[in-house]
Amino acid sequence: MTEPLDLLAIMAHPDDAELLCGGALAKAAALGDRVGILDLTRGEVGSSGSGEIRAEEAVRSAKLLGLVVRRNAGLHDSGLINDDASRSIVVGLIRELRPSVIVTHWREGRHPDHRVAAQLAYDASFLSALKNYDAPGDAHRPDKVVHCLLFREDVPRPSFVVDITDHIDRKMAAVACFESQFSGKASAGEVFGAGDRPLEDQIRAQCAHHGSRIRCAYGEPFWTRETVALESLVSSRVSTF
């Protein structure tokens, strides 16, 4: 049995993790956590590139981010369904990788796969702990499911923001690995364009905005259903003034 993961990003398509939480993944890996990505589809229906090209790009990005594993569930791109068959596949992979924390999409999104992926990841995380649930592997339940808020305009206030200042360049390098998707683009996925501003500048601008919320250069925002605990009233480093 492989060593459990500390953190697993479950995302609809190759490149989603890089865009939404690549900085936090790189930071966790740099701190010594075992980090992985589970891409639910190969992105084969996308207008650019192909499933094979995106798989090669995903391998290059995984090395840059410091991942210990990157897997693909092989579910149907642009037809992702939260049904029994899909849940069984994802449960089997969660049981195999045994992550402590799962990070996934926000619960809404303009791409249908993003919305479905968020619920599928959440449901599979619960079902994975049911020992009689029909899926490969031994029962395992992650401690926490976290949702990415970056680039969303319809979301609540973040539960927390991760300072990725020291890892923004690695995030951008990982994004750039997906040349078939992003080269020459001003918008992609949940990232809306801003005139002629290049995609890289738009991503940096969004991360800079969220960084300012915690008084740092760059940050990535996240949301959890449960309240986030502080060790004490003096443990937060974010200034009021």
Span of the ends, CA to CA: 50 Å
* Overall pLDDT confidence: 93
- Percent strand: 15-25%
Name the helix and strand elements from N-terminus to C-terminus, one letter apiece.
EHEHEHEHEEHHHE
Biggest sheet statistics: 7 strands, mixed
Topology of helices and strands:
Elements: E1 7-11, H1 16-30, E2 35-41, H2 51-65, E3 69-75, H3 84-97, E4 101-104, H4 112-127, E5 144-148, E6 160-163, H5 168-176, H6 179-182, H7 199-213, E7 219-223
Parallel strand pairs: 1-2, 1-4, 2-3, 4-5
Antiparallel strand pairs: 5-7, 6-7
Tell me about this structure.
The protein is globular, with a radius of gyration of 17 Å. The chain contains seven helices and seven strands. The protein has helices at 16-30, 51-65, 84-97, 112-127, 168-176, 179-182, 199-213; strands at 7-11, 35-41, 69-75, 101-104, 144-148, 160-163, 219-223. 37% of the residues lie in helices and 15% in strands. A seven-stranded mixed beta sheet has the order 3-2-1-4-5-7-6, with helices on both faces. It has one domain: LmbE-like (Rossmann fold). It has 241 residues and is of the alpha/beta class.
Primary descriptors:
single chain, 241 residues, alpha/beta, Rossmann fold, 7-stranded mixed sheet, 7 strands
Short description:
This protein has 241 residues and is α/β, with parallel strands linked by helices.
